[in-house]
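Known limitations

Structure tokens in this collection are predictions and should be treated as such. Users comparing against experimental data should check residue numbering before alignment. To illustrate the layout, the record for Putative secreted protein (Por secretion system target) is reproduced below. The input appears on top and the generated tokens appear beneath it.
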Amino acid sequence: MKKIKLFLFFCSCAAWAQNPPENLLRMQCISDKADHEHLDSNNLLEKKNTPFSYCGNTSQYYSQNSLYVPKPTQDIIYIKLNFIFLTKPDGTGNFEENNLEHQLVWDDIIANMNYRLGHIEIPQDVTCYNYDPNPANHVYDSRIRVIVNRVWKVDPAWNFLVTGYVPSEGPYSNNSILIPGYNYYYSYYDNDPTIREGINVVFANNGELYEQLAQGNCASGIAETGWAASEFPSEYNLSQKSRQFWPDMYTKYLSMKHCVTQQGYPWSDVRGWYVGVGYSSFVHELGHSLMLYHQGCNDHVMNAQWNTNHNYISKDEIGKMYRYASISSVRQYFTEDSYTHDVFKVNSDETWDLNFRIYSNVQVENGATLKSTCNMIMPAESRVIVKNDSHYIIESGNISSADNENWNGIKIEGTGDLLIKPNTLIDNGYFYAYTSNSVLPAFKAPVGEIAMRNQKAVEDKTLVTDIKIYPNPAHSYFNIDTGKEKLVSWELYDLFGRLILKESTPQVNVQQLSKANYILKVNLGTKQLSKIVSVN
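Generated tokens:
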């Protein structure tokens, strides 16, 4: 089953000095009772025909949110969104690509999204889900951020009325044509080769309302569309696309700028109310994309009412966001180099019989045995560490890297051991394991039983050295320390994938760069590693 979630278009922005008048931002909320469900037989077939023989999903990592709760010290992971603005052939009809005022509005909305994700408040409403007054049990930072790619497309359906949608019939008009799902009109953007991988968020407008507002008519009597829609991820069809649809964002902007200000409200306040959706509705939407449901408490981000604080997410729900970032289709939208630098510690016998992506290292310790029987996707910079007297078994499973090119392997320490059982398919060319003085090289084939144990250690010949970038953040220079590895070259990209700098020196001069996060790709000759760096 796949549910399509509808939620409130605009929410209260309590952070502003003056709250908007009630009749300005009140919008219809489609509650959980109006969820649209349908059976997707392809999802069921994919579950049945999974390529891994032992994906029974009995592991606690399949169902327990508490195992995924982020630590405040772990690195941030990034999810990719595509904001797709549909326009007329002359570029109008929506926010405009070359309009600085419009760009700054979206800069602020995106910044507000990331602010809220990094600033989770303790609720004042004691009825909130998983409320705990003890500050020590509160997660103040989700350690998730968004990277937004803005896309402009000339499309006759910039005017969503051409889809056959009839506003007076409500969200389910014309067989739910505007709701992301099996009948979604804008699904043709799912496989557009010019759009990067990410959650596709489409913005279109009521063309009749736009024409009236563009002519300065604030009394057309045409109502704005008061809803927006998203869909939950799938645990079964891991290639399922994730979409959102936001109607009338630009007509709302025109109305607030040209009509609301006529009521005596200064534009600085009105603009603040508008970009405040980044704190509330857009994070609410992202919550649905990560499998969060509506909540009733006044402070909750997932409250569907407009006039609440929207600043709380429970510890359990943040764990759930990470769990679905691991076991569901939404995992495909996290950046390849998302890596927490944290460790999943296995200190009792476990079987991992699930298909999941993790964002950390794995460490088997305390004499425990870890058996992998399904699929595990790991960060390129991560490794599995098998500690003294501990055991790692791969049986009919697979380990792959998020970038499908690089991985730091399986390290066996002391009297630990690795056993690869027959009929295991290692389907990549970068898999390897190593002890203190021997290496199991990369291979790509079904394998017979391979055992690897540490003999008397002479020296640690780790194949890959973790590069160090310091200081990070920096405002003048980054230094690149590759240890014993030879630095061949490096490239610095912005979060839109544009090449900013490249060189081969161990120092990166960022004095002329804007304050932002960047991706530093370091070439060591035999492999490449990427790090998120910040200029402040």
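For this record: The CA atoms of residues 95 and 417 lie 58 Å apart. The mean pLDDT is 84. Please report discrepancies through the issue tracker.
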